[in-house]
User: What shape does this take?
Amino acid sequence: MSQPRTGYTARPIDKGSNDEKNECDRLRFSRCRRVLLTDGWDHHARRRAAKNFGLDFEERRSPGLNSSASCLRNRQPYSEMIEMFAQLKVRHGTKIAVVSNELYIENTSMFVQIPKRRTSMKPANSGILTINGGSSSIKFALYQDGEPLQRGLYGKIDRIGVSGTSLTFDDPAANQRERRKLPTSDHSSGAKFLVDWLEEQKSFESLQAVGHRVVHGMQHTAPELVTQELLDDLHRVSTCDPDHLPSEIELIETFRQRHPKLPQVACFDTAFHSTMPRVAKLLPIPRRYDAKGVQRYGFHGLSYAYLMEELARLGDPAATTGRVILAHLGNCASVAAVRDGKSIDTSMSFTPASGLVMSTRSGDLDPSLASYLARTEQMTTEQFYRMVNRESGLLGVSQISSDMRDLLAHEANDIRASEAVMLFCYQAKKWIGCFAAALGGLDTLVFTGGIGENAPCVRSRTCEGLGFLGIEIDQKRNAGSEGVISTDASRATVRVIRTDEDLMIARSVSRILKTDTVNKGLIHENQHAHV
Assistant: This one.
């Protein structure tokens, strides 16, 4: 058998042997860029070949080569690969070749190892893409992996499901900030549009993994590499959180379909609270439901994990050996109690609708209200769900707005706005007191979230009357939203920390990439695919 040109090594592979299967598997899960080249096949045959090798199909003319090419989107074969294919075509009559750092030649019983491409075109540090998908928006950010992680391009698609769906992005490196309207408004189209747009960006070239925020993880207690097994499990539990999980799963599957060899990591918002004691997780309903996984899970875990790492970075000893209460006050709001770095309780429960009053969510309610409204107003389960999730909270009480900024602007002249603000602050105070009791005291209180970070009057009103916990607010520091807003004499330190869920996702992905988890996950999925 003739050898390819100098610089490439080739060896025979016995057809049907384990050796052949292993080499195919190694190719199939290669993370290198690949191109499918064919000569003499019709259009449909090329499509079938591309599907067989898990490639996106796109016909192109390769420069200097008289054949069609089916390529990964926006990818061109390396010139040396084209040269090698030309020689292989002449020597072996090759009909199909899959090219990467490894090349398997379907019709020649040969495996060719190609040296890694030496080029300075690709950044030395590889990128991590974070995706934070909700029911009406998709936020994204690209980070350069390193110490520390550096955020580059970021943005979001918002107003999904209503008119005016748009993409806004900021690229600091290019000093570019732009807003673009989308032709369609449904979530599926928005996800595909985002992937299309990201593929056109130069920074996408260096992407090595994608991290997704997954709101409800149930029994999943740490970030995990996405596999088909995990996706099947998420589909199974998606009814627990119909507002988030279906759209999050769709985003993962969109990336998986377009870039099947790109590792993806699911980062669960519930994982932080997996350390809660049994008594905090139990719900007082028939025990058979606990066996089915109906219990308190808690949310905002990515935010809380970030806050605890920041506390440690700031040198607060309570981060590892103290009693901390974290108050994430925003459109969605919750409070968590942390002892010695581990969550022991949180206000949200089986779903994110429980706990504090929120922008459009009611928070805790008397469960008999559902049957009462069903009897008196013939309210269906779906209507009740919509009411407590989208029509209640600050919006429901004020009848003006779900935005705290609007309510603060109107509270002096509108009793409805005033009562909504008072209710929010009272509920936050009550939960802080509740968790101080569970912790047996308080060392550090942290405010975060859109309201917690930016509304000094809400922080001040929430802390009024909490002197018995050792909380004493410095009004000047609070008005300036300084890092520490308590007085020097305050027994408990009160902090304001800007949370960063995207950075926490990127950190989680980076840590997984530094282990052998990705390789093991790909091997496991490969074995599963051949069963």
Observations:
- The chain has 20 helices and 20 strands.
